[in-house]
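// run 5 | inverse folding | seed 20
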């Protein structure tokens, strides 16, 4: 059995990184390359850019097409790209780590479908999408490559991947293409059976999800999904730790922390706005009662306006410190 499948995940800084990677690949390349770049629903010219940069043909993947060596398949906008046996699979399922396309679904599906035939590479990007997917590749006998964080435009994704996996290779960007060319088509060692929880998690990504299905692989937590507001479940023994809601949204720890920080900041600004408005309104009410000679009521509203102003200052201090 040969290593004939390369999966690549990247985010911030990824366009330039992928162009450099494509430029370094040979015209004869004995593996298919499947790429996820976090582009959301935005139009993408990435396949054309990769063909201009290097010798291999590239196109946006289509659902249920054969995965062939020497071709670059790019996840299309707003769709998860996965592998189902020997063919591609596109799904417009729930976002993972706030991304669609996301890296983890591709890596997870490749690990389960192609096991030791897979070479997974994580390049530049923010937060932690791809860490769980690279761990899945490792668990199923694949080769793992991480861009040296010091050579990455955005080092978060490589650093978090290094925390999740001890990779076979940590390379600067300009060394990854030559290593992929050396590994593509090389013999693969004996393959382990994919862990059952990983297979079940992949099934949840490709089909309908439910509370009953999620509770087979996860435990309820006290957290709520920042996408839909549902309960989050912590996947048992996951490396790295991650959370999933029963509608399918999935988060790594750092992505969830980022979401919680954003939600808290949003709530604090909402509170600050309300306190400013309360201070303004109470000041006007106090002035009105002073004008009509009702000094006791005027004093009460003046004091209330002062409390609102003081609370607003405390929140402004918290926002400056955060």
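// decoded
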């Amino acid at each position: 059995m040969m290593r004939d499948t390369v999966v690549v995940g990247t985010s911030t800084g990824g366009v330039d990184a992928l162009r450099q990677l494509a430029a370094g690949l040979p015209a004869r390349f004995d593996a298919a390359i499947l790429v996820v770049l976090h582009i959301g629903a935005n139009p993408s010219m990435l396949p054309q850019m990769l063909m201009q940069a290097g010798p291999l043909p590239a196109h946006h993947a289509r659902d249920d097409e054969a995965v062939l060596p020497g071709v670059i398949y790019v996840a299309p906008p707003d769709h998860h790209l996965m592998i189902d046996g020997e063919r591609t699979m596109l799904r417009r399922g729930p976002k993972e780590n706030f991304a669609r396309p996301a890296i983890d679904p591709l890596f997870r599906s490749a690990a389960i479908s192609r096991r030791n035939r897979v070479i997974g590479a994580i390049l530049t990007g923010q937060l932690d999408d791809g860490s769980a997917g690279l761990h899945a590749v490792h668990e199923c006998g694949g080769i793992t490559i991480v861009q040296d964080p010091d050579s990455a435009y955005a080092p978060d994704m490589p650093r978090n991947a290094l925390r999740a996996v001890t990779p076979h290779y940590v390379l600067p960007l300009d060394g990854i293409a030559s290593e992929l060319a050396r590994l593509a088509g090389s013999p693969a060692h004996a393959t382990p059976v994919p862990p059952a929880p990983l297979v079940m998690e992949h099934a949840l990504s490709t089909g309908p999800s439910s509370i009953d299905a999620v509770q087979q692989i996860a435990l309820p937590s006290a957290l709520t999904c920042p996408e839909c507001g549902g309960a989050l479940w912590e996947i048992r023994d996951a490396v790295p730790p991650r959370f999933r809601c029963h509608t399918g949204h999935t988060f790594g720890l750092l992505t969830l922390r980022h979401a919680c920080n954003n939600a808290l900041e949003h709530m604090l600004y909402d509170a600050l706005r309300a306190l400013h408005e309360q201070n303004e309104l109470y000041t006007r009410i106090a002035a009105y009662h002073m004008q009509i000679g009702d000094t006791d009521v005027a004093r009460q509203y003046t004091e209330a306006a002062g409390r609102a102003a003081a609370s607003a200052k405390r929140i402004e201090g918290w926002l400056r410190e955060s």
